[in-house]
Design goal:
With 214 residues, the chain is an alpha+beta fold. The chain folds into 2 domains: 117 residues, no CATH class; 78 residues, no CATH class. It has a 5-stranded mixed β-sheet.
């Protein structure tokens, strides 16, 4: 497998979905408890005249039953997608959004606004920077996952280093052994082991500042 030349629509790396199935083959279906980017739809109370979800919006979406009576749908996956959890058949016909007051309300409300944009056919903005991972953190995590993917594919640390930093390609063995690039690859692989083996990757879905303190 050419582990680097993968569709960059998912970051180009095998982020856990199954977790053994790469995310570019089958998108991850996270629960809203773990990932506040999932919009929860329930049946609206009686007396409200509510929107319906247009059929074209769900066209091509493949609902997955997460639990009995609870469906998860990824709407418009080709342009980033929007995760919905639909709780019961009545929630499809008479939807209302459920916003748990669990510390991640700002993210849930922002994602709901993005979903409403989809419903009305207007341009869908990204999340505000204040609700997203900082760019430097995103790039570091991309390198961590890249290093992990290389290791899982059987690549050596030096091969991983060549991908992450083209200057490694011109190094001889002695230069590589004493280089900062080698030390960095080692740090990335240690971080990757914590993310994968200790399931710390889940914390990336919901940073600590969006959790209630006990």
């Amino acid at each position: 497998m050419n582990w680097w030349a993968v569709s960059l629509t998912t970051g180009g790396y095998p982020v856990p979905a199954d977790p053994d199935v790469p995310a570019w083959i089958q998108p991850a279906l996270w629960s809203p408890e773990a990932y506040p980017g999932v919009t929860i739809l329930v049946e609206a109370p009686e007396g409200f005249h509510v929107r319906t979800i247009p059929e074209h919006l769900l066209h091509g979406a493949s609902p997955t039953e997460q639990q009995p009576g609870i469906l998860v749908v990824i709407v418009s996956p080709d342009d980033g997608g929007h995760h919905l959890q639909i709780r019961g058949r009545a929630a499809s016909a008479r939807p209302a959004a459920l916003i748990p007051l669990d510390g991640a309300e700002e993210i849930r409300i922002a994602q709901l606004r993005r979903f409403l944009k989809r419903l009305t056919g207007t341009s869908v903005p990204g999340l505000p920077r204040s609700l997203s991972l900082p760019p430097y953190h995103v790039w570091r995590m991309a390198d961590v996952i890249c290093a992990y993917a290389g290791r899982m594919a059987g690549a050596s640390q030096r091969e991983i280093g060549r991908v992450l930093d083209p200057s490694v390609r011109t190094m001889n063995a002695r230069q590589w052994d004493t280089s900062s690039q080698r030390a960095r690859v080692g740090r990335l692989l240690k971080r990757a082991a914590r993310l994968a083996d200790r399931r710390e990757y889940v914390s990336l879905l919901r940073p600590g500042r969006f959790r209630l303190r006990a």
